[in-house]
Amino acid sequence: MAVCSKLISPVYTTCQEYVHPWTPSCYTASAGLLLHSLQASFRLYVTIYTLALLMKGHKPTTRDIRRTIHGILQSTAFIVCHAVGFSLLACLMRNVFGHYNFFTFTFLPTFVSSWFAILVERPSRRSLLSLYVTNIASETLYYMLVWRKVLKPIPFADILIFTSSMSCLSYLYRSQCRSSDSIYSLISFIVGPYEQLNHTPDSPESESTSKKYSKRIKLTEIRSERSCSSKNKDSSSLTYRAMMFYYKMIQKFQNFLKSFARCQYCSHPDGCLHYWLQGGTKVFAIGYGLQLCLRILMHIKKITRKPILLFAALKSPDTFSLGAFLGGFSFLYRFISCMMRRSLKKDVQSIAIPAGFLAGFSFCFYRSNTIALYVMWKSLQILYLVGRDHNVIPEVPHASIFFHCLSTAILFQAAIFEPQNLRSSYWNFLHNMSGGRVGAIDRKCLDIYGLESSKMVEMIKARHKKS
């Protein structure tokens, strides 16, 4: 009761002392925040939407350009409503109630402003935004409890979360529940479409896929023979014979892999060994390429000055981490699934549970709280939707909007009261969107709650300057 009374007890400080110590006018403070958040968010979403438009791989039509411009403006307004809404409502609540308390400082103004802001955004993006902020908010709540010594740090918690969540998602993927969800496209890309129960060895899709693959091999052989014969005119016969010998050896090895360890219970057209290696190496190459491109873009200035750094990036262990994670997951998932089918002598949905769980240990190569929490919340979201569709769980109206507002309010509350428990990337985001105003808010009046808010924000700002 003493704690509750302290949380709701009035704190008689002005909004100028707390929200905008740089100016006495609430409207001037909100107008300045509006202008800066408008510029920063507009630059951010111009980059995001332009990249999304270019990644479609075709010449943008007039309709695509219009939709891109509309999306940029709408998402920019979404961020601006968050920033300006918090500033105005924090001042308004102080003027209406005559004081602040633990909840009216940040939580309630952010919750209300988030509700209006999410309604500005497109309905198709609301669920994605809700999942994103819920991801960060759950991690922040965990750090807040650890900092208060309510919980002890759990070693390897991210690995346990990822493996258990992937076993759940893999099971749902095989059962074709909510097959339109984007997460299933990602799982299909990593483990392959043959891990779904609708793919049988005699299915037309499998036959057409194998026929296309065999035709592609024949075309490759014909082209290589033509190229080799054309090169033979300008090269010695010994070189030509060596090239043909190595080519035939490679073809024989590929054919051996495709025919080795075939299983009548598996739906993939080639042998199991080729199936495992093909999936692992393909996804590994893609992950390695993505990580390499990202490292080059992040250090482009240093690489242009010292090109030798490019070779260091090529062989850096960090460059291999994403590829090892994705390739390892694909290989292990396919390997375990095939072994389970062989031992059970049938293909059942439940084999996805051990396959997803054990393959999830490849996460050790690329540990990330963001990825672990994303798959956890995604699995919970899909389970809720499945339960709702089967009338097992009642439908919660506007659930995504509520979770977005609640999570955003928790994040803003942490940014103001205890920024040391907030993810550094999210603090940098708030700092950039507000033009540094989130760090300029005077937190001395908040020290009565015993969270050392003014001391912690100075520590965070010093760390931000060094980075």
Explained architecture:
The chain is an all-alpha fold and 467 residues long. It folds into two domains: 2-121 and 418-466, no CATH class; 165-201 and 265-389, no CATH class. The protein contains 20 helices and no strands. The protein has helices at residues 2-8, 15-18, 26-54, 62-97, 107-120, 123-147, 157-175, 182-191, 204-232, 237-259, 272-298, 300-305, 308-314, 317-344, 352-359, 369-389, 399-417, 424-433, 437-440, 453-466. The longest helix is centred in the N-terminal third of the chain and has 36 residues, at 62-97. The model is unreliable at 200-217 and 230-235 (pLDDT under 50).
For the largest beta-sheet, the strand count, sense and barrel status come to: none
Shape: elongated
**Number of separate domains:** 2
Detail the poorly predicted runs. 200-217, 230-235
**Whole-number mean pLDDT:** 84
**H-E string:** HHHHHHHHHHHHHHHHHHHH
So how many helices? 20
**Residues in β-strands, percent:** under 5%
Q: What is the end-to-end distance?
A: 42 Å
Helix content: over 70%
Helix-strand makeup class: mainly alpha
Query: Would you count the extended β strands for me?
Result: 0
Radius of gyration: 28 Å
